[in-house]
Amino acid sequence: MAETPISPAAPPPAAAIRLEAVTKRYRGQAEPAVDALTLEVRPRELLVMVGPSGCGKTTTLRLINRLLDADEGWITVDGEDTASLDPDALRTRIGYVIQQVGLFPHMTVAENVATVPRVLGWDRARIARRAEELLELLGLDPADFGDRFPRELSGGQAQRVGVARAMAADPPILLMDEPFGSLDPITRARLQDELLRIQGSLAKTILLVTHDIDEAIKLGDRIAIVDRGARALQVAAPERVLSDPADDYVREFVGSGAALRRLGLLRVRELEPGHWPALPRAAERHVVRDELIASGRPAALLLDEAGRPWRWVTARELERGGEPGTEPGVPASAELTPAATLHEALDAIVRGGVGAAAAVGDGGALHAIVDLEAIMAAADPSRPSQRTAGGEEAGLVRS
Amino acid sequence: MAAPPAPATVETAPTASSGARRVLAGLALPISLAIVTALLLLWLAAQPLDSIERRQLDLGVLARRLVEHLELTLLSTAIVVALAVALGIALTRPRLRPLAPLGVAVANIGQAVPSIGLLVLIAIVAGIGPDKAILALVAYSFLPILRNTLVGLGGVDRSLIEAGRGMGMSVWQTLRRVELPLAVPVILAGVRTALAINVGTATLATFVDGGGLGDTITAGIRLGRETVLVAGAALTAVLALALDWAAGWIESALRPRGLDP
Q1: pLDDT for the residue numbered A221
Q2: For residue range B43-65, what is the model confidence (pLDDT) as tens digits?
Q3: Interval B194-223: pLDDT, tens
């Protein structure tokens, strides 16, 4: 339960991008912008480099595509030393999304997307096809947007075009510099989701840079937390960084909400289900009551004929009997799925009011009952499990 | 919960009637210039002319001087565009950028010296003739185009160049596809200024035997024939306005789409 690897299980053979003790000094600055950075981006992973503004993140990206040359150390892309490659040729293999989006204002959206294919000398028909394909991939109708100029786009649309342009020649590697930095929170969340969706199907090697720890946690297969000089303090899966920060700096950077953030990473299906009584609605009332009392839980879940959550009932409601024609207890919500995050599960528990929520699988049948105890155990794996005796558990839940 | 941001789209296609109105407004100047020229010719035809005036105001002579004047102006401007834009591009490349102030200073000398003085200096050094006049015009109108090229290229958003280079465009491709198109409006404004300078200054070419409408004007002054003087001056003015109109038209035609606010 402690570790749930998100990145592929088997270690990949070679790094897609590898920086080895890379140092870059800008003239007139005492401290190097990038100080002996060693970092490895694995093939097909989305690695997020996160750190405060001005800590050398952008410089790192510019070193990789050789907009800058490193003073010390070396960088390989797909095993090739970049210093030995022609910079322009190297860059056509690496998609680059800059912080300011940088769409060419005098070119239409389609022409912007066609930038790299034109450099590569594709024929017209192929370029047009590719531009359409990419705009569709990013949720922009080519017929509507292809002939627009950048100033006719909203911030989110421009950012989508920027991503489409970077992906135009289908580069295996993408460098993204704060791609969603200038967007409002809603648009940003939507574009982050889109990126995850696209990455889910295309599986590029992506190095994304941000100063937003939440963005890093949401997007990254792994995240690299960096300090000034792009010194990597911890490179690990997001949940690892949250549950086990490498040092005080990382702890501080991740912030006080680390436990809550972890809830957004874990899924209901990864939980150990709580032991709550769940019986068919046809069961005799005294049977339900006996089982409820034996479990020590405050409520029992009644299931309908198809095994779907129906109503929650408490012992008192069972004793009182209720009037004929009315059903006992409160309706059970069945919105949670095994794929839901614990964040969503917590929300369902709080809204439900009985201290637990039912998660349903395919067809709406009960999958598991999730309670606070299970969430707390998952959110902090260092805490010893208290699921040992039924009585102890019940006391905890009830209090 | 805030509503998702509405896409900030702008309708660009101008309506048909406003387009037609713009074309009419654009044609107002050439039409009035044609009317002024016609009135001038009518007025000249109505004047009692002596033999000297008749020789100076012969339509063939006037047309030849007009063409000479046009040649002086266009040729010198074309040469300036080629030289000054090239120099401007060179002086905005990272390696030569420190030399840009020097370039502007040198070009400034050309413009700071009075035009007639420059013309005479060149005549003393190089002799006389239309080509020497063109040389003087080139030196005289170099600055506006150089300066506007520097300003235009310097004003291109660095992040766009970064984006171009970062995607694998070569230095040359970035210049041709990104920097120059974006600098075109500013450069063309400089060209228009240079054209205006040259069409006026070309009247002085007559002093180094360069031809042009200056011949007609100075003849009018020297011979004390006011009709000749008026004809030369009016034709120069008409030519200057016509060229400026044409330059303005070219300016808006070459302005990259997508830039207008």
Answers
A1: 94
A2: 998 988 888 888 989 999 999 99
A3: 999 999 999 999 999 999 999 999 999 999
Q: With CB atoms and an 8 Å threshold, state whether A102 touches B178.
A: no
Mean pLDDT, residues A138-162: 93
Q: Is the pLDDT of residue A14 over 60?
A: yes
Contact A131, A142 (CB under 8 A): yes
H/E element, B33: helix B16-46
Q: Fill in the amino acid letter for B59.
A: L
Beta carbons within 10 angstroms of residue B185's beta carbon: 19
Of A102, A116, A154, the CB nearest to B7: A154
A62, A102, A106: residue with CB nearest B163: A102
A105/B166 CB distance under 8 A: no
Closest CA to B8 of A147, A160, A141, A154: A154
Q: What's the pTM value of the predicted model, to 2 decimals? A: 0.74
Residues 133-162 of B with CB under 8 A from A: 157, 159-160, 162
Q: For residues B192 and B241, is the Cβ–Cβ distance under 8 A?
A: no
Which residues from B are below 8 Å from A163, CB to CB?
none
Q: Compute, in degrees rounded to 10, the torsion defined by CA atoms A112, A162, A234, A219.
A: -140
Instruction: Report DSSP letters for B87-117, one per residue.
Output: HHHHHHSTTTGGGHHHHHHHHHHHHHS-HHH
CA pair distance A347, A272, nearest whole angstrom: 18
Task: Give pLDDT, residue A267.
Answer: 84
Question: Mean of the per-residue pLDDT values for chain A?
Answer: 86
Residue type, B29: L
Is A108's CB within 8 Å of B167's CB? no
In this complex, is the C-beta atom of B15 within 8 Å of any C-beta atom belonging to chain A?
Answer: no
Q: Which residues of B7-29 are buried (b: 16+ CB within 10 A; e: fewer)?
A: eeeeeeeeeeeeeeeeeeeeeeb
Query: Per the CB < 8 Å rule, is B178 touching A96?
Result: no
Closest CA to A99 of B174, B5, B259, B162: B162
* Between B11 and B70, residue with greater pLDDT: B70
For the question of an ipTM over 0.95, the answer is: no
Tokens of residue A173, six digits: 């590697």
Distances (CA, A) of A19 to A37, A64, B48, B126: 7, 8, 91, 63
3-state secondary structure of B157: coil
Does the distance separating the beta carbons of A156 and B159 come in below 8 Å? Answer: no
Contacts (Cβ under 8 Å, ≥6 apart) of A381: A1, A2, A243
Greater model confidence, A322 or A368: A368
From the CB of residue A137, how many other CB atoms can be counted at a distance below 10 Å? 17
Tell me what percent of the residues of chain B surpass a pLDDT of 70: 92
CB A148 within 8 A of CB A111: no
CA distance B52 to chain A (A): 57
Which residue did the predictor score with more confidence, A68 or B16?
A68
Say which of B9, B170, B177 has its CB closest to residue A88. B170
Report the alpha-carbon distance of residue A73 to residue A83 in Å, rounded: 10
* Structural contact between residues A237 and A222, judged by C-beta atoms closer than 8 angstroms: yes
Interface mutation vs chain A, best among B12, B159, B167, most A CBs within 10 Å: B167
Q: Which fold has domain B51-259?
A: MetI-like fold (1.10.3720)
pLDDT given for residue B157 in this prediction: 94
Tens of pLDDT, residues A30-83: 899 999 999 999 999 999 999 988 899 999 999 999 999 999 999 999 989 999
| Interchain contact B173–A (C-beta under 8 A) | yes
